[in-house]
Amino acid sequence: MKPHGTKNIVVLGAGESGVGAAILAKKQGWNVFVSDFGKIKNSFKQELDENGLEWEEGKHTEARILAAAIVVKSPGIPDKAPIVKQLHEKNIPVISEIEFAGYYNTAKTICITGSNGKTTTTMLTYHILKKAGIHVGLAGNVGQSFAKQVAEETFDWYVLELSSFQLDGMFDFKADIAVLTNITPDHLDRYEYQLQNYVDSKFRILQNMTANDWFIYNADDKIIEAELAKRTIAAQLAPFSLTKELAQGGYVNNEQQITITTNKEQFTMSIHELALKGKHNTQNSLASGIASRLLEIRKETVRESLTDFVNVEHRLEFVAKVHGIEFINDSKATNVNSTWFALESMDKPTVWIVGGVDKGNDYSELTELVRDRVKAIICLGVDNSKIIEAFTGVVDTIVEARSAMEAVAYGYRLAKKDETVLLSPACASFDLFENYEERGNLFKEAVRAL
Fold first, then answer.
1. Intra-chain end-to-end CA distance of the chain, in Å
2. CATH class, range 317-448
3. What is the dihedral of CA 101, 105, 111, 116, to 10 degrees?
4. Which of 418, 408, 427 lies closest to 366, judged by CA?
5. Chain centroid to CA 226: how far?
6. What angle in degrees, to the nearest 10, is found between the helix axes of 16-27 and 42-50?
7. Residues at the annotated binding site?
């Protein structure tokens, strides 16, 4: 349903994605109105004004919004919001910025989703394509707005990181290559607490795909495997695994060697050459490597890119070594599953900084790893009772801190030479910080001040 301009379009939410959608809509001849129930950042107001776009903040003028032919909604606005419910009742299409940009996009797309690892896999895939000299854009949950780039750029490929919320608003969009890193229970509050609803949401990445397209997925993920058994997938399959040999796709063998097979061609490299450490990062590297080889990027370029990649900020980011103690910032780990991956990749005794706003966390899945690798716990949150209860008896030393500075000071005292202090909170940050970036930045400042 590629609607044409001259009709009314309303953009709900004036953040990166909303402003980008508004710019593209205007270019395509729509009558555009931008409405944000909260405050609009000054930089975005300026951009809207420069583009001659009409906007409002702090309210939703219902008459204007309900007169739209189509509405582009920010992924942060839940379907339960009253204005969205009214739009659904009136059968006015409510779509995501990605869907809207897709109507006008002529480039091919590699679309990446999953509960964890999607940002790293997206950045890594983008890094390889860029290094190969492909004219490529980066968008979705990272980089600049996809819609804005479609309005202003002429890329041949895009690498898009897609959240389940973005996928929920996508209907006619089609990926050329889809990647599903894993599925673990996350954001269930937005899915009636039904795991199947969340799984269905992630699998929307496959909609409209044909036999010419490719689906890269984690063959070690039980939820994905169970779901694949129930579905007929049109796309060609390129799974990856850390445990089983695969004729097509990628795997790791007992000699710690990666093998990727695409179009009957083999690519191999040692797991020890990978820039990113830990099993989950091997999975991310396999997914990115398969996507790159499907584009027939030279083996040397893929090998080089997987060796020299520098990870995204706040994701297992090495900060500094102070008197032999390594400090690692994994502030982006806002759920238990992300933290599981972080702890799993620690190869030295670790002092673990954890805590914040808990999304209904079950810490029991971390018990074995914590017993095995963690020598002390520093709680960094307002209410730490659940963490203290979960790990009393598992770890001898548990202390509480109320600031990044205090947490780092404890870490420095509790860790010894050749040990690690890891900030991997497993929780959201809003009790003490603005967001996970601020938490990570204050942690890094405190480490550098030691």
1. 58
2. alpha beta
3. -30
4. 427
5. 23
6. 0
7. 114-120
Please write the tens of the pLDDT for every residue from 81-107.
999 999 999 999 999 999 999 999 999
User: Considering the entire predicted model, what is its pTM?
Assistant: 0.79
Q: Are 120 and 313 in contact (CB under 8 A)?
A: no
* Bridging pattern class, strands 374-380 and 397-401: parallel
Compute the distance between CA of residue 330 and CA of residue 308 in angstroms, rounded to an integer. 20
Binding site residue list for ATP? 114-120
Q: Which CATH architecture has domain 8-95?
A: 3-Layer(aba) Sandwich (3.40)
Give residue 6's pLDDT: 64
- pLDDT above 70 covers a percentage of the chain that reads 97
Output the CA–CA distances (angstroms, integers) from residue 19 to 11, 44, 306, in the order listed: 8, 7, 34
Q: What fold does the segment set 99-308 form as a domain?
A: UDP-N-acetylmuramoyl-L-alanine:D-glutamate ligase (3.40.1190)
Same fold, 8-95 and 99-308: no
* 444's tokens: 């890094």
Tens digit of each residue's pLDDT (9 = 90 or more) over 385-437: 999 999 999 999 999 999 999 999 999 999 999 999 999 999 989 899 999 99
Which two tokens mark 25?
């809509």
Domain ranges of the chain: 8-95, 99-308, 317-448
CA distance 294 to 9: 38
State both tokens at 386: 């659940």
